Amino acid sequence: MNKCVFLDRDGVLNEELGFQVTSFDQFKIKDGVAEGLKRLKSAGFILIVITNQSGIAKGHYTDEFVMKCHNAIQEISDNALDDIYFAPGYDTVSKTLSRKPNSLMFERAIAKHHIDIANSWMIGDRESDMIPAKKMKFTTIQVTSDEGSSQADFVVDDFTSAVGAVLS
């Protein structure tokens, strides 16, 4: 069984700009992400991105764009990420069971990567990240400058602090 850190993307690994990023020049990886991912990987964690990407269903961008952004994170982190799951749907356009706060993406990753739930974490920035992670019984870390979710076990200001919480 493998210990894992599940990661939301937007607002955790890259900057949340207050609007949906639709071009690669708007995609800004947060400070400390490359180093943090490398530290988690060195500590033996499998790293899996779990992200809602409603812009696909809305016609704002394609799954190729999502992968281009993912590959940019891979490039700066020495390919630290082991997998990515993304939900392209959006309720007003196309219903999907994959979209967080549902847990289907997590369940698929657990089965594929033989994840040890008791030794796994979720780092997210929203309540919708915390809900399925708590359902799956992961330890949860919310990265936010606002008031934290009641579902979060830890609330931190940045990704570097989240990595520190996992490794402490």
UniProtKB/TrEMBL annotation:
Protein keywords: Carbohydrate metabolism, Cytoplasm, Hydrolase, Magnesium, Metal-binding
Annotated compartments: Cytoplasm
Active-site positions on this chain: D8 (nucleophile), D10 (proton donor)
Annotated site location: Stabilizes the phosphoryl group: T51, K100
Primary location class: cytoplasm
Pfam families given in the database record: Hydrolase_like
Record carries keyword Metal-binding: yes
Cofactor(s) essential for the protein: Mg(2+)
Enzyme nomenclature, EC number: 3.1.3.-
Single biological process term from Gene Ontology: carbohydrate metabolic process
Site (Contributes to substrate recognition): R99
Superkingdom: Bacteria
Enzyme class, spelled out: hydrolase
A GO CC annotation given for this chain: cytoplasm
Binding site residues for Mg(2+): D8, D10, D125
Molecular function in Gene Ontology: metal ion binding; phosphatase activity
Family, per entry: Belongs to the gmhB family.
Protein's name according to its UniProt entry: D,D-heptose 1,7-bisphosphate phosphatase
Organism this protein belongs to: Roseivirga misakiensis
